[in-house]
């Protein structure tokens, strides 16, 4: 089943617990810390554009790429409402193309975990390096092995709301480091609720493998942080941020 089709309709509703403003402050702080205070920034896996919009409000010239037409449709509706000048592109991050280079690339909310093969992830890193200005930075987050194996794995999450409800079943396959999400959605349509089903897969990566893939792709690994701090990742970190830099083509 194709991911982020039916779910796109209610994604923002169920993600209203995500403090996008605080996340954007953290990302903007990292961008400035590593020398990017303005200019073109690419948001890989931008989804419905919530973070993209906030960074545009902060003065960055934003480009958003996502491979879900439904999610991008919502992002473009938001752009229409706000009048922001954001370029959205329907592309797979494993083979994305830009017309020129950008000062920074970001990828937030575990988009990189959706890349299930190491070689594909290395290709993403290679493309990022190719489209970064000299010395440009790449900032992205990842759900950790700890989160999948100890928090999400083999758990069921459910939420019931007036307009829609969901049941989210997780299965973590330790040998493959793959987390399978089975998502059942019940979306209100008039007086009735229609059921939709989606299946998502994410992969857990150890930090050392991420570092190796970054360097094999030609980039410089700078550092990694426990999410929303400037501290090193802990064994029980659930999300980490990685910072890499362009290092020649």
UniProtKB/TrEMBL annotation:
Tell me any Pfam family this protein matches. Answer: Methyltransf_25
InterPro entries in alphabetical order: Methyltransf_25, SAM-dependent_MTases_sf
GO MF term set: methyltransferase activity
Q: Which organism is it from?
A: Anaerobium acetethylicum
Q: Which Gene3D superfamilies match?
A: S-adenosyl-L-methionine-dependent methyltransferases (2.20.25.110), Vaccinia Virus protein VP39 (3.40.50.150)
- Residues in Methyltransferase domain copies: 41-136
GO biological process: one example: methylation
Top-rank taxon, per record: Bacteria
What keyword terms does UniProt attach to this protein?
Methyltransferase, Transferase
- Keyword check for Transferase: yes
Q: What is this protein called?
A: 2-polyprenyl-3-methyl-5-hydroxy-6-metoxy-1,4-benzoquinol methylase
């Amino acid at each position: 089943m194709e991911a982020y089709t039916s779910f796109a309709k209610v994604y923002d509703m169920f993600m209203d617990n995500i403090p996008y403003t605080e996340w954007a402050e953290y990302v903007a702080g990292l961008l400035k810390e590593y020398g990017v205070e303005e200019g073109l920034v690419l948001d890989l896996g931008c989804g419905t554009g919530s973070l993209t919009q906030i960074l545009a409000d902060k003065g960055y010239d934003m480009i958003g790429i996502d491979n879900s037409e439904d999610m991008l449709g919502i992002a473009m509706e938001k752009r229409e409402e706000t009048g922001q000048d954001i370029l959205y592109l329907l592309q797979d991050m494993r083979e994305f193309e830009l017309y020129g280079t950008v000062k920074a690339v970001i990828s937030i909310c575990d988009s990189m975990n959706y890349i299930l093969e190491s070689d594909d992830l290395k290709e993403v890193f290679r493309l990022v390096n190719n489209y970064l200005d000299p010395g440009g930075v790449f900032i992205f987050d990842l759900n950790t092995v700890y989160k999948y194996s100890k928090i999400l794995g083999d758990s069921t999450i459910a939420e019931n709301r007036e307009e829609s409800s969901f049941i989210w079943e997780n299965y973590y396959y330790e040998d493959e480091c793959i987390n399978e999400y089975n998502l059942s959605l019940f979306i209100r349509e008039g007086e009735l609720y229609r059921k939709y089903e989606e299946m998502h897969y994410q992969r857990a990566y150890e930090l050392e493998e991420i570092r190796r893939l970054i360097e094999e792709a030609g980039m410089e690994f700078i550092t990694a942080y426990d999410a929303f701090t400037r501290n090193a990742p802990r064994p029980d970190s659930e999300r980490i941020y990685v910072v890499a830099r362009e290092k020649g083509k």
